[in-house]
Amino acid sequence: MKLLIETIGWIGSVLVIGAYGLNSYQKIKSDSREFQLMNLVGGILLIINSVYKEAYPFTLINSVWVVIAISSLIKHRK
Q1: DSSP code of 53?
Q2: Each residue of 24-61: pLDDT tens digit?
């Protein structure tokens, strides 16, 4: 189980950092669906990892991250 949670955390980190990097190099826009989905999935995976490790400050940060991504996706869907 520990290896699975570690892997989930690493994938989440890669997604969030990847979204930031792609946006920074103007490969995707911050208001694009791809950017928000990468942040949403990455944030969810990081929440799983941080809850397992009882790192609740990181759980809070990533929960806010996920809420922002969801609200952005909803806003752009309309």
Answers
A1: T
A2: 999 999 999 999 999 999 999 999 999 999 999 999 99
The predicted pLDDT at position 78 comes to 67
Nearest Cα to Cα of residue 50 among 11, 6, 16: 6
Alpha carbon distance 10, 49 (integer Å): 9
**For the chain, domain boundaries:** 2-77
Q: 42: burial class by Cβ within 10 Å (0-12, 13-18, 19+)?
A: buried
State the Cα angle at 57 between 37 and 52, rounded to 5°: 75
**Mean pLDDT of all residues in the chain?**
96
